[in-house]
Amino acid sequence: MSANAQTLQQVPVTGGYTADVFAEAYPFSSFLVKGVDDGNSGYLVENAPVTNTYGLPKQSEMPVTSATGIVYNLHYNENNALVLKSGVDGYDTAGRLTFATPVTTPQLYLQTISGNGTSNMSVIVNYSDNTTTEYLTSANTGLSVKDWWNTSTDPAQHPGEGFYWLQRVAFDGTIPQSDRAVRLFDTMVTTDNTKAITSVDITLDNGTASGPYLSVLGVSTGTTPVEISGGYTGDVIAEGYPVSNYTSQNPLDGNKYVLFSNDAVFPSPTADNTAKVYMPENGKLTSAFSGIEYSIDYKNLNSTRLVADDGNTPADERLATLTLGGKPKASHLYVLYIAGNAGFPVDVTYTYEGGTTSGALDDEFTALDWYNADSPVVDKKWLLW
Q1: Burial degree of 209 (CB within 10 A; 0-12, 13-18, 19+)
Q2: I want to staple 39 with a disulfide (CB 3.0 to 4.6 A). Which of 23, 25, 35, 93 is the partner?
Q3: In whole angstroms, what is the distance from residue 56 CA to residue 53 CA?
Q4: Per-residue confidence (pLDDT) for residue 39, from 0 to 100
């Protein structure tokens, strides 16, 4: 990662790095290259800002087109969902969404989400002439909305889902939950396109106190969002932090989870932790073992990752060459290292100006696994002569 000569002069590495194991912002996985262990882990930089890319689109991006091509207009600073629960104080099992302006369309799309299981839903479409089109669970014409949780990363496993791979946040939480598993559905009902629709009635038919819980967050004709003038009962999308100030604290499930938009800026997960368990923000890392200071560039490749050679590439993945800047003259170098998924022996060979080579006097050592609460990063003194 970094080397240091005998005069305690930092030696820049000008070539050979293949990985970035330091996350300088959130979501962490977006700021790692290869990483440690299986490649999904690394070190978190202190005060790393929480940048959101796995929430709903920003308010300024409305109206927004879902993955299935349906256009919605979501409002984050007001009630934005009809939340239906059974046997839970403060909630009803049915509600009516009234349209600000009647619409005529051959179909309506409801943006739906279900927590704590699959919801069975009845929908009644109300027209201006007092007639209806009904989709009733009791008549076996009702609709179902699957549970909002699906960790699959295969797009083929998300048919009919308007948004997926989203994160969620607890309304008393500080950062989003790490899993990208939340999905919203585009639920379609066929309507009479010769009549003007004034409202829709929605009923949760299989709810219990422990779920499922049904919510409707938007209505669309497909190409045009339908504005709702009445019927939303909760604000379930946080556009800022703290989450409790930007939602009505109506969880979408049986816990405390709600959605958030990418407008929300969450505090660094390191902000309230005074223990030195994060990488220093300025990139200056002083070893507790040797007292040597290393400079780490968090924004670029900053390490070399060696793994067992699988024979699938021409290069031997067990080997790497680090090119040092400044041509240091020294009796020894300090090298900062970590090992993931167990320790392993390391051999060292030096190449000098002119092309000669030699091994270090202690040219083999065992790199210790990084999972150790007492010494998460270790440096090693390599003797040159």
Answers
A1: exposed
A2: 35
A3: 8
A4: 58
Per-residue pLDDT tens over the stretch 47-63: 666 666 789 999 999 99
Residues making up the chain, counted from first to last: 385
HEC assignment per residue over the chain = CCEECCCCCEECEEECCCEECEECCECHHHHCECCECCCCECEEECCCCECCCCCECCHHHCCEECCCCCEECCCCCCCCEEEECCCCCCCECEEEEEEEEEECCCEEEEEEEEECCCEEEEEEEEECCCCEEEECHHHCCCEEECECECCCCCHHHCCCEEEEEECCEECCCCCCCCCCCEEEEEEEEECCCCCCEEEEEEEECCCCCCCCEEEEEEEECCCCEECEEECCCECCEECCCCHHHHCCCCCCCCCCEEEEECCCCECCCCCCCCCCCCECCCCEEECCCCCCEEECCCCCCCECCCCCCCCCCCCCCCCCCCEECCCCCCCEEEEEECECCCCEEEEEEEECCCCCEEEEEEEEEEECECCCCCCCCEEEEEECC
Q: What is the pTM of this model?
A: 0.66
Structure-token pair, residue 385: 């002569």
